[in-house]
């Protein structure tokens, strides 16, 4: 079985200085309202936005959700299997609580599935990124008649569930896009399976490409342990359902898991300050790809980034040793990505197996092997010798930022 690595990507916060779409003031859509192409709904806390978009170079239109401060990052799509071919799409909610997406000729492109009928339905975009339908006639506002979290696309949010219903109902899992221009379901899926002990797996069709290792009561055993994790994994058995979810430790930090079209699972976290430059090298003439290659060929390199963010990014900044003073940070109208290396791995074999230049490796966690153990042992010895010489107290790097 071929093992694909699990990639974790820490992204600095992107704040867009302009918003081209007109935003409806409310975060709800009632049965007497409609949302047309060019309009958006914005969640109450201004975190998420719902509207129409075209992916990549495609001219097709899709109804999706994205971070309001990162409009190019689409997180969920309603009509990923059937696009609107013009810019005349309209979203409406019926009197019984069903969402309908219409094309310009009033053909139904997509509709939600209701478990029950609502007397006074309202659609809401929550600050979790979840679109829900609630019945205002009920006293409890958290009883959802329908929610988008039940229909994952390529991205997993905090609170979104992966389900293995043990043959009693349809499973819930994440599916990659077909390509950067086509969000319809691709070849890869990220799901939970249970053969004695539950584990998370990445599948390419029916072929298992990667597995985390079984649940040990606290976490999935094959996942890395962070000294300051951004979220807490949760596993529940509910009747005939096996449910995997995770909760964030802080609602202030945006974090997500995305399965890209090459089958790589990436973790994105927005809003971090770059590490201190106590042990670093700057080369202003190198590109980001050259910087990546240089870092991966140096076992002491722990992270790299563009030195400058202007003009799409230029120069190379590499860190060595502990990443000091990396903190949550909100940047205004700037974007800078830092790529944190967790371990050495088989970069070239992964590139050859996928045969695509789009599989940009951000941070690498390879399968446990003899080479990895030797590498970790080597790094541990070097750090101990360095600290002994300096007489400094021990410090454990925080890879969660």
Task: Write structural notes for this entry.
The protein is 9% helix and 37% strand. The chain starts with 5 loop residues before the first strand and ends in an 11-residue tail after the last helix. The protein has helices spanning 288-296, 347-354, 370-390; strands at 6-11, 22-24, 28-30, 34-36, 39-42, 48-53, 62-67, 70-77, 90-93, 99-102, 108-111, 121-125, 131-135, 144-147, 155-156, 162-164, 174-179, 182-195, 197-204, 207-211, 231-238, 241-248, 255-259, 265-269, 280-283, 301-305, 316-320, 337-340. Strand 21 and strand 22 form a beta hairpin. It is mainly β and 401 residues long. The chain folds into 2 domains: 6-269, Agglutinin, subunit A (Orthogonal Prism); 280-326 and 336-390, no CATH class. The longest helix is centred in the C-terminal third of the chain and has 21 residues, at 370-390. It has an 8-stranded mixed β-sheet with strand order 15-23-24-1-28-26-27-25, covered by helices on one side. It is built from 3 helices and 28 strands.
Write the layout of secondary structure elements.
Blueprint: E1 6-11, E2 22-24, E3 28-30, E4 34-36, E5 39-42, E6 48-53, E7 62-67, E8 70-77, E9 90-93, E10 99-102, E11 108-111, E12 121-125, E13 131-135, E14 144-147, E15 155-156, E16 162-164, E17 174-179, E18 182-195, E19 197-204, E20 207-211, E21 231-238, E22 241-248, E23 255-259, E24 265-269, E25 280-283, H1 288-296, E26 301-305, E27 316-320, E28 337-340, H2 347-354, H3 370-390
Parallel strand pairs: 1-24, 2-5
Antiparallel strand pairs: 1-28, 3-12, 4-9, 5-6, 6-7, 7-8, 9-10, 10-11, 12-13, 13-14, 15-23, 16-22, 17-18, 18-19, 19-20, 21-22, 23-24, 25-27, 26-27, 26-28
